[in-house]
Automatic annotation (TrEMBL):
Start-end of Basic and acidic residues biased regions: 147-161
Record's compositionally biased regions (Low complexity): 162-171
Annotated region described as Disordered, given as residue ranges: 128-189
Organism of provenance: Mikania micrantha
Protein name: Retrotransposon Copia-like N-terminal domain-containing protein
Amino acid sequence: MSSSPAAPPLPKKSHPRIFRIKKEKERKYLSASNANVSNFVSVRLSGDGNYHLWKTQMLCLLKAHDMRDLVEDSPTPTHSSSKMKEKYDSLLKGWIFGSLSEDVLSIVVDSDSAKCVWTKLESFFGSCKSSDDQGGFRKSNPPVTSAEKEKELSTTKDENTNKTSNSDTNNAGESMDKEAPQTGKKGNL
């Protein structure tokens, strides 16, 4: 009986299961890299109160491409190899940069990773800060109903009327026929 020598094990590159997994990851990356980001993210983050809308749209995009783990504090099973993780990270960073106004981009452009960009944007726009703390950007308040707008307008008119009455009383010697600064019309302030 002749015994044939045992066949050497297949190299890892040509192992069918590993090859299939690698191809699947490459296919997913290719799909993500060809995504039309503007179909998911129609809001350009400008720092004037649209952070919540921008973040919501961006998270939908990340979920659709299995990339949320790149910005969240979770393990990264989807992009296990460091090379694939770098590719996805660069792709996501590009998506984020492309959806920012120039002013906002200047805040995060030197960040090393998509996670770092995400964290900076979250800390800058995601928490309640005054406009002074945000470098001139302001976070908008929740939407105001038309009834609240009318009440605010009415209150503002009442306050202006009271200020004018007090001013006219204090300056009794001056003419009350002054030019109104907002309308350019003659009349009481």
